[in-house]
Design a protein that fits this description.
The chain has 369 residues and is of the alpha+beta class. It folds into 2 domains: 11-175 and 288-368, Aminopeptidase (3-Layer(aba) Sandwich), CATH 3.40.630.10; 177-286, 2-Layer Sandwich (Alpha-Beta Plaits). It has helices at 11-22, 32-41, 105-124, 139-142, 144-148, 202-212, 253-274, 296-307, 322-328, 352-368, and strands at residues 48-51, 57-61, 71-76, 89-91, 94-96, 131-136, 158-164, 170-175, 177-186, 216-219, 222-231, 241-250, 277-286, 289-290, 313-316, 332-337, 349-351. The strands form 3 sheets. Strands 1, 2, 3, 6, 7, 8, 14, 15 and 16 form a 9-stranded mixed beta sheet that branches. The chain has a 5-stranded antiparallel beta sheet with strand order 10-11-12-9-13. It has a 3-stranded antiparallel beta sheet with strand order 4-5-17. Helix 3 crosses helix 10 (352-368), helix 6 (202-212) packs antiparallel against helix 7 (253-274) and helix 8 (296-307) crosses helix 10. The longest helix is centred in the C-terminal third of the chain and has 22 residues, at 253-274. The two termini are 20 Å apart. Bound molecules: zinc ion.
């Protein structure tokens, strides 16, 4: 059987769109600047746009001559840090930051790939099913747009999230849940030289608690970290208060619950030992998910990756993405590798070939969807 010829992608237009997206500073709160790049460039393709109250941009691209189940193509419009003066530098192998900030390929490469895929497909005159586009806000500061997003604002119940690390062809099958803890230890202040025995050091309580917590790579599926510690008032005062922030992630929600108990017990035991107190706020930042190999959305991703001439790699990740929130809301979401390098640093770099491959993948998802 002869392979279906590929749909031609306009590489110059793809690069031009990508650079135009990178050139706007769209840290959380300023994503509207990306919306203003997307909409005019996608004029005349038949996409109808609306924004939800959280700034998420939703596009509906009606089917053309094909009756298939609708699907969502998703990327986030914000960047991990502001990029106010960053000038993207185009080199023969890819696009770099000028070193003043992150590049923001995470996730403008995802936005650009989806835009060019729709454009290229439109020009091909091939039939396609109904497609929804979902460009989210505040992913990197805490999945703000996707957490607030309402599933009834779209009809699709499967989504492809263009936002994972690893080469194009990477399919995230398992992703961790995360809990965050704020622990406020309270002791009693006293003069450190004159009457230290009247005080209770909150810093000592915190130190004991931390020492008793399982931290680092706790087991095969679980990690934990003390992120910040602050407390005390002066050299000569027994510290009345200390606040510690802790996170833990696990691919297993059950294991995560045990970690929550271990961390909480360590804090409470330490407070008891010293005669102080502790207040613990536990926050479920996101919930672990696992996709089945047999899930039709995973199979579609595999088919599209193969059709685009790449190799599928099913992976577990340690990171969070909008896919967490959509899966939680009942929209099966597959997070896909983008091939960007050194994201979240000023050395961030997007190879031309990876951007092109991600676009081909988006095209094949539409084609086989
Ligand atoms: Zn991202």
């Amino acid at each position: 059987m002869a392979a279906i010829p590929p749909i031609p992608i306009n590489r110059d237009r793809l690069l031009e769109t990508f650079v135009a997206l990178l050139a706007v500073d769209s840290y959380y709160g300023d994503e509207e600047r990306v919306v203003e790049v997307i909409k005019p460039r996608m004029d005349g393709l038949g996409v109808s746009w609306r924004s939800d109250p959280h700034g998420n941009l939703i596009g509906t691209w009606p089917a053309r001559g094909k009756n298939s189940e609708p699907l969502i193509l998703n990327a986030h419009m914000d960047t991990v840090l502001p990029t106010p003066n960053m000038v993207p530098i185009v080199k023969p192998d890819g696009v770099y930051s000028d070193g003043s900030s992150v590049l923001g390929a995470d996730d403008k490469a995802g936005v650009a790939a989806i835009m060019e895929a729709i454009q290229a497909f439109h020009e091909s005159n091939e039939p396609h099913g109904p497609i929804e586009l979902l460009f989210t806000t505040g992913e990197d500061v805490g999945h703000i747009g996707s957490k607030a997003f309402e599933a009834q604002d779209v009809v699709s119940r499967r989504c492809f999230v263009f936002d994972a690390g690893g080469p194009v062809g990477t399919v995230v099958m398992r992703a961790p849940g995360q809990r965050r803890f704020v622990m406020k230890f309270k002791g009693k202040s006293a003069h450190a030289g004159i009457e230290p025995e009247l005080g209770i050091s909150a810093i000592s309580i915190a130190a004991r608690a931390i020492d008793q917590m399982p931290l680092g790579r706790v087991d095969e599926t679980t990690t934990a970290n003390v992120g910040t510690i602050e407390g005390g008032q002066a050299y000569n005062i027994v510290a009345p208060e200390a606040t510690v922030t802790v996170e833990s992630r696990s691919l297993s929600e059950e294991r995560l619950e045990r970690q929550v108990a271990d961390v909480t017990n360590a804090a409470m035991q330490a407070a008891k030992t010293y005669g102080g107190t502790v207040e613990i706020e536990t926050h479920t930042f996101y919930t672990a998910y696992e996709l089945e190999e047999s899930d039709p959305a995973v199979q579609l991703a595999d088919t599209a990756i193969e059709a685009a001439g790449m190799t599928t790699q099913h992976v577990s990740t340690g990171g969070g993405s909008d896919a967490h929130e959509f899966n939680e809301k009942g929209i099966t979401s597959v997070c896909l590798g983008m091939g960007y390098i050194d994201v979240h640093s000023v050395k961030e770099f997007m190879p031309h070939n990876a951007l092109h491959d991600a676009t081909r993948l988006a095209v094949e998802l539409i084609r086989h969807g």
